[in-house]
């Protein structure tokens, strides 16, 4: 094995192992799978060197596998240099006796799938949006009762913004700082959370744009700005967490939500998680929008009808194909008009009602792929074949966690299956295409969407249906990777009793090894436990040497 120099340790953020402490003898076992998780685009030789250093460090401290999240859902779109670097990395792994395990087939964060076709995103439905025809185009006209009062914060009552309720922390009407006019709302970051709210009427199954301006001063890291639309049953329809840190001038925030079944929402503006600093908010707007981020694929049809007669008009005969040329699942642009075709049946002045589906982001970055669209599986199948060609792995890792949108589109509805079964069928199809290229391949999967102690719930984010019972539809030849530390002592035995092997995803954006010790104690009492993985989403590998020594037995004294 090649030694890791002190310079390489510093580059990685690695330091000498900290004192490990003792584990009771009954709680300590050395498992056959001792791994590290690495996310990388391999987009430069410097990045390749970084990952090589992780591999060598892992090997030197008793680890024998690396799960690599390397963008494999778009393997066929990668440049030649990516393939060159990947093959070099595989040689390094082989030389260090570290098994390379590709992670992919991601429906939840579907950047790879959407790189092939952005319209494969899971969609939310809009019913009866109003468009009024002119001579050549039909334009969107809002007919929703939704109206936000005093979004400029110019009106006040008892030194607070009129028409808003104030919650959970210090909120000040600031008449010295404003984006426009003479006032803004100021949130004092000395509180852990603070927000203002107003109940807003809505029309079910419509899309609403949200806009505001924010300014910050000395805001601590870990502070998230929120725009929320809470339905009467408590479900948030918006899911925006906008990370804040430091000091910034006025910045515009654009977002949207689909009202789904709600005829009113509690609209909230504020922050969570802060410990210091100041946030100003001004010029908040809420209003119905049309055709922004419209999806066009077989499972998301568009319907245009005459409001008065009910006549359904035809695309390519009465109007041109409807697409959003700026489809990016952001909300900083307007949707397109409907372009009327010469000789078509739509007349100027007609009121049209339009049904369509739009894409959506969760927490600014996550876009989910539709699990009922055949093209998604065609893309995955091609990637499986390329992975087998270049890597010939013995193990594959399915990245099917936190699936937060789905079940609405025609493709899903036509199947007449519960969402739990649609998810299970997706995993079965993924496993089948892997076994087509390697019948003996071992397949792993994240636990959360199949764990009743975690995300396998009746109500979950923007899911039309229930994920309760998803575990009933899983293929049996899987290793379940549990990663919810607080529920480990329930999750591990749950899957063990169902006959699955288990592996712990020890979460490592932390400062000590208590997480590992807790997992090892729970694994020791779980029949069928086969391993543990150092898991970091933030590329923090400082604790990797100590982790490796502990789980491989070098740290037991």
Question: What features would you describe in this structure?
Answer:
The protein has 557 residues and is an alpha/beta fold. It has 2 domains: 24-118 and 369-552, Glycosidases (TIM Barrel, Alpha-Beta Barrel); 123-367, Jelly Rolls (Sandwich). Helices cover 21% and strands 30% of the residues. It is built from 10 helices and 26 strands. The strands form 5 sheets. An 8-stranded parallel β-barrel has the order 1-2-3-20-22-24-25-26, surrounded by 6 helices. Strands 8, 9, 10, 11, 12, 13, 14 and 15 form an 8-stranded antiparallel beta sheet that branches. Strands 17-16-19-4-5-18 form a 6-stranded antiparallel beta sheet, with no helix packed on it. Strand 24, helix 8 and strand 25 form a beta-alpha-beta unit. The radius of gyration is 26 Å and the shape is globular. The model is unreliable at 1-21 (pLDDT under 50).
Short account of what is shown:
By secondary structure, the protein is an alpha/beta fold.
């Amino acid at each position: 094995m090649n030694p890791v120099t002190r310079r390489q340790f510093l580059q990685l953020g690695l330091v000498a192992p900290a004192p490990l402490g003792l584990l009771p003898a009954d709680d300590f076992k050395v498992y056959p799978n001792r791994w590290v998780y690495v996310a990388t685009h391999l987009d430069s030789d410097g990045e390749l060197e970084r990952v090589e250093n992780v591999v060598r460090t892992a090997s030197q401290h008793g680890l024998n596998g690396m799960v690599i999240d390397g963008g494999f859902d778009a393997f066929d779109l990668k440049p030649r240099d990516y393939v060159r670097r990947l093959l070099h990395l595989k040689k390094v792994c082989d030389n260090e006796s570290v098994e390379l395990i590709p992670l992919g087939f991601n429906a939840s964060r579907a950047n790879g799938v959407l790189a092939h076709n952005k319209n494969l995103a899971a969609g939310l439905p809009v019913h009866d949006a109003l468009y009024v025809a002119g001579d050549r185009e039909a334009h969107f006209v809002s007919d929703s009762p939704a109206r936000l009062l005093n979004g400029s914060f110019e009106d006040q009552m008892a030194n607070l913004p009129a028409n808003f309720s104030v919650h959970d922390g210090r909120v000040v009407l600031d008449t010295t700082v404003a984006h426009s006019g003479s006032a803004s709302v100021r949130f004092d970051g000395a509180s852990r959370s603070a927000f203002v709210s107003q109940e807003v009427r809505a029309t079910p199954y419509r899309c609403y744009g949200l806009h505001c301006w924010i300014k910050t001063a000395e805001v601590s890291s870990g502070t998230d700005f929120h725009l929320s639309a809470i339905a009467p049953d408590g479900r948030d329809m918006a899911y925006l967490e906008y990370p804040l840190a430091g000091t910034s001038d006025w910045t515009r925030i654009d977002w949207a939500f689909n009202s789904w079944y709600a005829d009113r929402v509690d609209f909230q503006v504020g922050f969570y998680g802060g410990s210091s600093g100041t946030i100003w908010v001004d010029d908040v707007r809420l209003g119905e929008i049309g055709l922004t981020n419209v999806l066009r694929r077989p499972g998301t049809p568009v319907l245009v009808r005459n409001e008065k007669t009910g006549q359904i008009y035809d695309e390519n005969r009465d109007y041109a194909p409807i697409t959003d040329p700026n489809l990016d699942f952001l909300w900083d642009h307007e949707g397109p008009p409907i372009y009327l075709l010469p000789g078509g049946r739509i007349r100027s002045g007609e009121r049209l009602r339009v049904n369509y589906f739009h894409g959506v982001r969760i927490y600014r970055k996550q876009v989910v792929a539709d699990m009922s669209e055949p093209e998604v599986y065609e893309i995955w199948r091609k990637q499986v074949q390329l992975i087998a060609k270049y890597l010939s792995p013995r193990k594959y890792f399915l990245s099917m966690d936190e699936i937060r949108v789905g079940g609405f589109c025609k493709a899903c509805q036509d199947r007449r299956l519960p969402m739990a079964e649609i998810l299970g069928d997706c995993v079965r199809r993924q496993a089948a295409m892997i076994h087509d290229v390697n019948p003996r391949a071992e397949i792993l999967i994240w636990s959360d969407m199949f764990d009743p102690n975690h995300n396998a719930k009746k109500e979950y984010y923007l899911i039309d249906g229930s994920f309760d019972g998803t575990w009933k539809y899983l293929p049996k030849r899987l290793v379940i990777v549990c990663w919810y530390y607080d529920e480990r002592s329930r999750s591990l035995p749950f899957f063990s009793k169902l006959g699955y092997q288990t592996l712990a995803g020890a979460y490592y954006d932390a400062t000590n090894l208590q997480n590992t010790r807790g997992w090892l104690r729970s694994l020791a009492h779980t029949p069928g436990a086969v391993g543990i993985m150092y898991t970091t989403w933030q590329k923090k590998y400082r604790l990797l040497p100590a982790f490796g020594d502990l789980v491989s037995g070098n740290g037991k004294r």
